[in-house]
Design goal:
The protein has two domains: 74 residues; 135 residues, Beta Barrel (OB fold (Dihydrolipoamide Acetyltransferase, E2P)), CATH 2.40.50. 40% of the residues lie in helices and 22% in strands. Strands 2-4-5-7-6 form a five-stranded mixed beta barrel. The longest helix is centred in the last third of the chain and has 47 residues.
Length: 258
């Protein structure tokens, strides 16, 4: 088999095969990324089109997080609780490492706290502290983050927005979700705190582009199969030819009896 593959003709075909497989694989990955990007764009458009709902109509304090809650636009009317503000380190915005500024708002209608990511700062000293006047916060709802073990953090910093931990440490009731702030009325957050764009929460995959991706990968697999099949057939033909040559040579060397 290796001797057959080592012929110039097969080496050239092997080089062509490698180029084809690489090209088809990349085309498939490109179609897959298009399918994912289309899904994200669709989810973002649907997310932006939904009107903001009062948070108390979407969540109940200490209640379960709704199945369609991620990415919903909500508004909370109340007052910030600056005494319980904290920073979350090791966050990145526009390529810069820094901190989320998280301040709970006490919702006026329920008295429960709702953690709000008011924005991002590169230096903890830039994190302002809002007053306690009434404010209407609009934002995108998110599920609480997983616990992060971060021993040695300075006072006023937490490894993540861990709602289970906050529920045990903060008095009163707590909503089982937090919000990425997209607006305040009136504006109480200073210009040094940069808003954090709400994350995109998935969406249905574009099956057409996913089908195109699978097509390219099937073509790549078929090219490999055809190369292998032709190589095997050529190798078998070589063996038959060699066997025939040996038999002919043997017949010629055999003594003839009269």
């Amino acid at each position: 088999m290796w001797r057959t593959l080592g012929r110039p003709r097969w080496l050239l075909l092997l080089a062509v095969l490698v180029a084809v497989v690489i090209a088809f694989t990349r085309l498939g990955l490109w179609q897959l990324s298009v399918a994912q990007d289309d899904a994200v764009e669709q989810a973002q458009a649907e997310q932006a089109a939904r009107p903001a709902e009062p948070v108390e109509e979407v969540l109940a304090p200490h209640g379960g997080f709704p199945e369609d809650g991620r990415g919903r636009s909500v508004l909370a009317v109340g007052a910030y609780d600056p005494a319980r503000q904290f920073l979350v380190p090791d966050r990145v915005l526009a390529g810069e490492s820094g901190y989320w500024v998280v301040t709970p708002v006490v919702v006026a209608s329920t008295g429960a706290r709702l953690p709000v990511v008011r924005g991002f700062v590169g230096d903890p000293a830039l994190a302002d502290s809002p007053g306690e006047e009434q404010v209407t916060v609009t934002g995108t709802l998110a599920l609480g983050e997983s616990p992060v073990s971060a021993p040695g953090l300075p006072e006023g910093q937490r490894g993540s927005v861990d709602l289970a931990l906050l529920a045990n440490q903060w008095p009163g009731e707590l909503y089982n979700g937090f919000v990425f702030a997209t607006g305040e009325q009136p504006r109480v957050t200073g210009p040094a705190v940069t808003p954090v764009p709400p994350p995109s929460f998935g969406g249905e995959v574009d099956w057409r582009n996913l089908g195109y991706a699978l097509q390219w990968w099937v073509f790549a697999g078929f090219a490999v199969f055809m190369f292998w099949r032709l190589l095997v057939e050529d190798h078998r033909a070589d063996r038959v030819s060699e066997r025939h040559t040996l038999e002919t040579a043997h017949e010629r060397t055999e003594p003839h009896h009269v």
